[in-house]
Amino acid sequence: MWSYNLRVFFFAFCFSLGTINSGKSQNSSIEFWPEIDIWYRLNDSLRFSVFIPLTKYNESKYRDLNIYLQADYAFGKTKHILYRNLIDDNREQKIKSFLVRGGYMKGWSIGENAGAYIEDMVFAEIHKRIPLKRNFLLAQRIRVDTRWLGDDSDFSYRIRYRAMIEKEYELKKMSVIPYFNVEPYWDSRYSRITRTRLIAGATLLQDSKFAFEGNLTYQRDEISDPPNLYALNLILHVFLKSKK
Prior knowledge:
Layout: H1 2-19, E1 28-41, E2 46-57, E3 63-77, E4 83-86, E5 89-94, E6 96-110, E7 118-131, E8 136-149, E9 154-167, E10 169-171, E11 174-187, E12 192-205, E13 210-221, E14 228-241
Parallel strand pairs: 1-14
Antiparallel strand pairs: 1-2, 2-3, 3-6, 4-5, 6-7, 7-8, 8-9, 9-11, 10-11, 11-12, 12-13, 13-14
């Protein structure tokens, strides 16, 4: 049964990728988001990480680069004990109920549109993990972004809620973790929800130091032109840990 579900998932993933260009219209844009995430584990609960995503716009030569520096701490027991891998970790572990994360992000445009986009952001998150039947895991996250945008460093903030469902499949020496999440964004500049993002993807864990992740994103943004965004996100995860 698990192999059938996995085949269905990857067929849907590839089909969606193939229909991005065919569904393109004047009210949509297509982007490519290559990314490298470096994780450094200090102990069972504390990690530091660096995310480096790049945004490539399909309709132009414009590029945006972001660098995230962050730390997270996991704690607490779940109601039902669950041992498994997570989409952002390469080791089997007892799932902790809560995770808190904080960090700083610097973003700017590069290439032909250098200077068009500048952002400094300080953010904080809290995650709640809930094991479900049949090895599914529900993760809820609340995140607050405090932002300074443009040359004038205009201040604003966003409140983001994300619900994600994931499940691990073990294939010989490899783990495949499909997931789906939905995330609305509330923006203080407009005092309403301005963006909703849907993501479907999977992470492949095979090596103790590396993992590969791919996902498709659909984003509806009420304040952007065009309002509909389709993106392919490919991530290389690099895992390091303290020898202590």
